[in-house]
Design a protein that fits this description.
mainly alpha
């Protein structure tokens, strides 16, 4: 199953509102899926055979990277919970999402914001 199919089957579109923005890697081609709900896909520009990006494309890449680093830091904080490094039996597969969500709540409520308010 491709990343695109997993995304489409995940129900992500159901929790997005019109005008939201989704950040993804290059090659994660879900723009047509997101357009169904008028959600913007933010991916870094491609070179497409060019030797370098235009100044506008460089600015867009920097802008995406400056936000993305904060997303990566939050994910790292969540993954630092020891419970997530455990091996879970298949019988608990349906509970893993709940465990992940609880760890996300704990990060939000027990740590300082990564980006100053």
């Amino acid at each position: 199953m491709s990343d695109k199919q997993i995304t489409e089957n995940s129900g992500l579109i159901d929790v997005l509102d019109e005008g939201d923005s989704v950040m993804a890697d290059r090659g994660f081609l879900i723009e047509s899926y997101l357009k169904k709900k008028n959600v913007k896909l933010n991916i870094p520009p491609f070179l497409n055979g060019k030797k370098q990006l235009s100044p506008e494309e460089e600015d867009k890449t920097r802008s995406i990277a400056s936000v993305r680093i904060h997303v990566e830091r939050v994910i790292e904080r969540v993954q630092n919970f020891r419970i997530l490094s455990s091996v879970f039996p298949n019988s608990m597969a349906s509970e893993l999402n709940k465990i992940w969500i609880i760890c996300c709540y704990l990060v939000n409520f027990t740590t300082n914001p990564i980006v100053p308010q």
